Amino acid sequence: MSRYSMDPLAVGRVIGEVLDPFIRTVAFRVRYNNREVTSGCELRPSQVANSPRVDIGGDDLRNFYTLIMVDPDAPSPNDPSLREYLHWMVTDIPGTTSTSFGQEVVKYESPLPHLGIHRFVFVLFQQLGRQTVYPPSLRHNFCTRDFAMLYNLGLPVAAVYFNAQREPSNRG
Amino acid sequence: MEPPILSVTKLPAHSASLSMALSMWSQSSAGDTNQISTGMLLSSSTSHSSSSSARSSPHDILATRKSLEEIWTGINLSSLQRHPFRGGLSLQDLFFEEPPPSSRCCPAAALRPPPPATVLNPSSAPEFHSIESADRKRSIPRLKTQPLKRTSENGGDSGDRVHKRMIQNRESAARSRARKQAYTNQLENEVERLLEENAKLRIQLEKVCSVAPAGLPKMQTLSRTLTAPF
């Protein structure tokens, strides 16, 4: 019908470096203090210090979803030796609800990019069943693809990302 | 005329000799078949060995001479450097080795092009072409400033650092362009979505307005009510 410009997730190389191409099937809203996150927007670390409010769609309360937040540009986009750094993981989120109804298995760590401009990616997966996903032991060198394969999460059902860089310490 | 009898019963499977066999059939003179068969076998590929032994000896020497020549041309300083002192270098080592690619003839220069290629690969592929073409435009004016830096420090080391910095800069420029493009795309998609929603809502509003007038006459028209106190 209308002109379709390329998906920001692909242009920003999130699809490719972190995720495989997928089709969005579940509604997904991430809000920091009522400020909605749209793919590719830039936020300041002070704005994302606390965990956002994440509302998910879907059509059934009996479907369970896992939310993962990673930084693929840790510690620096030029040299991402810690790719990906796991900031947050919430499992067993019932459909049509929000993260407050799930299990926070990896506590939200405030993004504090030190070098360069980092991408922070939120990915939503549908679980096969309840209590089938377990957190890793380490945050760094996490691999979303491998994790999804390990716990049979399949392809993502939704994703969004934002950019953040170090905030200047003295603001005049 | 009776067809010529194939003197060689075991022919190898590859197509060259099959086509030769077919051409043998097409030859009408029976007396020439033997000569034709020897000529074909001599010119066939070096790897097969099913021909008769008497005819294969001059043929095999030809084959070995050819491969030796190839090896000698392949041997040069770089390949000797690649086998430093592993218990002596014998001809056999070079015999069974693959001929080195021509790019290795200059090892110093060869070191630089591959690393940038591998480092640039993680960045987005469609931008790789734009990076290359932009590089050609920019590298010419930059070369003038580089020699000034190099002469003040050690030649090789600082050159690598400068080169590495250039690569990193190029990558971050590519990322920055990707970021900008992604943001623009997101805005465009949002605008489209909102325009569509707007259009839908307008249609809905029209529908509601066209249906309603029959249902809201009392509210719109004035009617007399009793307001006087008496």
Overall description:
- The complex is a heterodimer of chains A (172) and B (230).
- Chain A has 172 residues and is mainly β.
- Chain A contains three helices and nine strands.
- The N and C termini of chain A lie far apart (49 Å).
- The model of chain A has no long low-confidence stretch (mean pLDDT 92).
- Chain B has helices at 15-26, 33-43, 53-74, 77-82, 91-95, 107-111, 114-120, 126-152, 155-211, 217-220.
- In chain B, helix 1 runs antiparallel to helix 2 and helix 8 runs antiparallel to helix 9.
- Mean pLDDT of chain B is 61; it is low at 4-13, 18-26, 28-56 and 99-146.
- At the A-B interface, helix 1 and strand 3 of A face helix 9 of B.
SSE topology sketch:
The complex is a heterodimer of chains A (172) and B (230).
Chain A: H1 8-11, H2 14-17, E1 28-32, E2 35-36, E3 41-42, E4 53-56, E5 64-71, E6 85-94, E7 103-106, E8 117-126, H3 144-150, E9 158-165
Parallel strand pairs in A: 3-9
Antiparallel strand pairs in A: 1-2, 1-4, 5-6, 5-8, 6-7, 8-9
Chain B: H1 15-26, H2 33-43, H3 53-74, H4 77-82, H5 91-95, H6 107-111, H7 114-120, H8 126-152, H9 155-211, H10 217-220
Helix pairs in contact in B: 1-2, 8-9
Pick out the low-confidence regions of chain B: 4-13, 18-26, 28-56, 99-146
Order of helices and strands of chain A: HHEEEEEEEEHE
Number of strands of chain B: 0
Rg calc of chain B: 41 Å
Question: In angstroms, what separates the terminal alpha carbons of chain B?
Answer: 141 Å
Distance between the termini of chain A: 49 Å
Low-confidence stretches of chain A: none
In which range does the helix fraction of chain A lie?
under 10%
What is the average of the pLDDT values of chain A? 92
Overall geometry of chain A: globular
Radius of gyration of chain A: 16 Å
